[in-house]
Amino acid sequence: MKVNYSNIPKIIIALDFYSKKEAMKLVDLLNPSLFYLKIGKEMFTILGQKFINELHKLGFNIFLDLKFHDIPNTVFYATQAAADLGIWMLSVHASGGKKMLMSAKKALQSFKKRPLLIAVTALTSLKQEDLKDIGIQISLQDYILILAKLSRDCGLDGVVCPGKEAKKIKLLCGNEHKIITPGIRCFNDSAFDQYQIITPKQAKTFPIDYIVVGRSITCSKNPIKKLNFIIQSMQ
Ligand code: C5P
């Protein structure tokens, strides 16, 4: 079957490995013009900026998913430092608040070619009761929508959110506001710690710009076969 990449969400592969060797086993099989790579806290803590440079040399666009959440001044300089790496996208927590989000946005003003700045709304691992634990009484869905709107009002480029909220967020924030959705699972996959999961087939029915796929691929015996299966399911 001929694959059409133009009418499906773009695919960001979460490189959540504990060693470079393991990560490169997968990276070496990927075409940088078809897939984006996401470097999170685990790999960045182990391998740092050198690894980002190496992936850039191979031609990959990198989403640096460090989810900054700190005082505005710290986030300003952290965002600038991240942008200096020449990455394609970076993330902050929307719950850091308006001043923090504006500060992250301001940090990118001096860059000719700046990365996309994306706000995490609610982690896809969170349930309603987890919000109660931290004193938030509103529904998880309202919480996500409030944070999505805040990110749009602060001039960010988009949000990370559960797929099921994508439609409402596009209506509220406009079609230009990018939607990035993790928690992608095929039918037989384990959910692991994720709660808000959707299948690749469902992802195609929502207005999602990018899906983030991690363990569905990285825990598979044949990651490329699994990746192809995910792509086929979205055709
Ligand atoms: O392995 P899995 O497919 O669950 O990986 C999801 C990836 O997306 C992880 O790297 C995780 O850090 C990230 N992520 C998430 N939920 C968010 C934001 C990012 O799962 N809200």
UniProtKB/TrEMBL annotation:
The record ties this protein, via Pfam families, to:
OMPdecase
For this protein, what reaction is catalysed? orotidine 5'-phosphate + H(+) = UMP + CO2
Per its UniProt record, what CDD domains does this chain match? OMP_decarboxylase_like
Q: Which residues does substrate bind?
A: 16, 38, 65-74, 124, 185, 194, 214-215
Q: Report the top EC class in one word.
A: lyase
Q: Which family does it belong to?
A: Belongs to the OMP decarboxylase family. Type 1 subfamily.
Q: How is this protein named in the record?
A: Orotidine 5'-phosphate decarboxylase
Q: Could you tell me the gene encoding this protein?
A: pyrF
